[in-house]
Amino acid sequence: MSEPEVWSVIKYKPKEGCEDEFVQELKRLGTMMKENKPYDFLNTFIRLETGEFVQIARMPNLDALIDGQVQGLEWLDSVDHLLEKYENESRTESFSGFSVGE
After folding, report:
1. If 0-12 CB within 10 Å is exposed, 13-18 middle and 19+ buried, where does residue 61 land?
2. Which of 11, 93, 31, 97 is nearest to 61 (CA)?
3. Spatial separation of the C-alpha atoms in residues 86 and 92, rounded to whole Å
4. Distance in angstroms (rounded) separating the CA atoms of residues 37 and 64
5. DSSP 8-state assignment for residue 15
6. Residue 102 above 70 pLDDT?
7. Which band of pLDDT confidence, cut at 50, 70 and 90, is reported for residue 35?
8. Which of 27, 39, 52, 53 is most buried, with most CB under 10 Å away?
9. How far apart (Å, rounded) are the C-alpha atoms in residues 20 and 67?
10. CA–CA separation, 11 vs 87, rounded Å?
11. Where does 19-102 show beta strands of DSSP type E?
12. Which helix (H) or strand (E) is 10 found in, with range?
């Protein structure tokens, strides 16, 4: 039996006036995610009416998700100055989970 896919949803809130620069940084993140990946995955970004951006990613398994975490956190550190903090002082609101039944 194959491992279940892992989905992650990450929400970002750029500071007012930083939206265009943040979109460029999201494109850079997307490019980084494509480099040197020996597996298929899905990654897309959407913009909400609130001005927030959401990243939706599907990885083939938990190992693939963990594989990108260090690089993802380094990217997040590099865009910290563009982001508003959420109530809990976090730069993102996020959750991940395994696919269920197909």
Report:
1. middle
2. 97
3. 7
4. 9
5. P
6. no
7. confident
8. 53
9. 28
10. 13
11. 42-47, 53-59, 92-98
12. strand 6-12
Q: List Cβ<8 Å contacts ≥24 apart for 26-30.
A: 26/53, 26/55, 28/75, 29/55, 29/72, 29/75
| 70: DSSP letter | H
Q: How many residues does the chain have?
A: 102
DSSP structure class, residue 87: T
- Compute the average pLDDT of residues 29-56: 93
pLDDT band at 1 (very low <50, low <70, confident <90, very high): low
Mean pLDDT score across all residues of the chain: 93
User: Which one-letter amino acid corresponds to residue 47?
Assistant: R
Q: How confident is the model at residue 37 (pLDDT cuts 50, 70, 90)?
A: confident
pLDDT at 101: 72
Strand partners, 9: 56, 95
Q: How far apart are CA 13 and CA 80, in angstroms?
A: 11
Query: Tokens at residue 5, please?
Result: 């896919």
